[in-house]
Amino acid sequence: MSLVTETFAPQVNGVSRTLGELTRCLTERGDVVQLIYPDYGDAVERGDVCRVKGVNLPFYPELHLPLPPFGRVHRAIDAFRPDVIHVATEAFLGLSVLRHAHRRKIPIVSSFHTNFDQYSGHYGVGWAKSLIWRYLRWFHNGTRETYVPSRATIAQLEQLGFERLALWPRGVDASFFRPDRPGRADLRTAFGWGPDDPVVSYVSRIAPEKNVDYLAKALEIVVARRPNVRLLLVGDGPSRAELQERLGPSARFAGYRLGDDLADHYAAGDVFAFTSLTETFGNVVLEAMASGMPVVALRAGGVGEIVKDGATGLLVEPDSSPETFAESILLLIDDPARRTSMAHAARAYAESQSWSAIMEDLRNGYLRVVAAQAAERRLAVNT
């Protein structure tokens, strides 16, 4: 299988983590995966890799956008001779590979990860929203199946004319993300927090498309009403400096974290606050639940399917005020017994969402697509 993406490790985001897990699971099963993704200047430890030069987007500098020509990519695919191509992102590289797959009659599938039309409003190109949707519909309908992370997103895409959609949710390594991480106590001590100080956490990009202004307003209310509450924000982005100034000494901003360090930062929290309205799934929410945190989130997109309101966290309607969101956080801060009960339920749910089972379902989707195209070829030969 050839996996084509405009984001991959060491990029820190939900898409890159998901595709990294996909690659790992398939490789461990004995499949051979060719990776085609941007050149980040890091060392590569595997052979089946084709990296592409790109540019950083001015409004999203963490993202490297590969630019044409892509002749070398096409030649690498021809030499690899994949049974199926999975295009995970829809920009220039994905478009070029889509057309190449059609020319070579290679089965091609896609996955839908990001609501780019919703992001467009945050970066001054909201005028292009209808054009973006038309392009995305055309792109994904040009593949044999499109894998979508939540039923809510499937329903949205079906209304917009997307075809052949299949559910592909996300998993979590609950043996890695867990509440009893060895670095939890040391980390809280390093931040100057006591063992009983309640900590509200956030892990994600700190940027307008994550609705962080709303989050900051809610957290300001929480800290004003409960000065003993501590705030931990993990991630980076264009809104970080503003939030640091607004939230003051109660907040610790840890930047991007990876591996064990990231898992320890999750474990240091007691309640996870997430206000994004643009998530097709919300990997960080599942990681927080595995880390033993109940979640307070807006009922939007895939997040509303992960969090069970009243059981593993609290869901707030998207049109609610930041004060309402803050009050939901305070309900859990002020009721440790309820918070603990929800934490156990959140952890139990996360333990049931293994990557291996989810990726096996996706692999079966690949096999289904390959078999269908082979049958079509046989039919064409015999008619």
TrEMBL record:
Keywords: Transferase. Residues 12-175 form the Glycosyltransferase subfamily 4-like N-terminal domain. PANTHER family: SULFOQUINOVOSYL TRANSFERASE SQD2. The keyword Phosphoprotein does not apply. Gene3D superfamilies: Glycogen Phosphorylase B. GO terms for molecular function: glycosyltransferase activity. This is GT4 family glycosyltransferase. InterPro entries: Glyco_trans_4-like_N, Glycosyltransferase_grp1. Pfam families: Glyco_trans_1_4, Glyco_transf_4. The keyword Disulfide bond does not apply. It comes from the Bacteria.
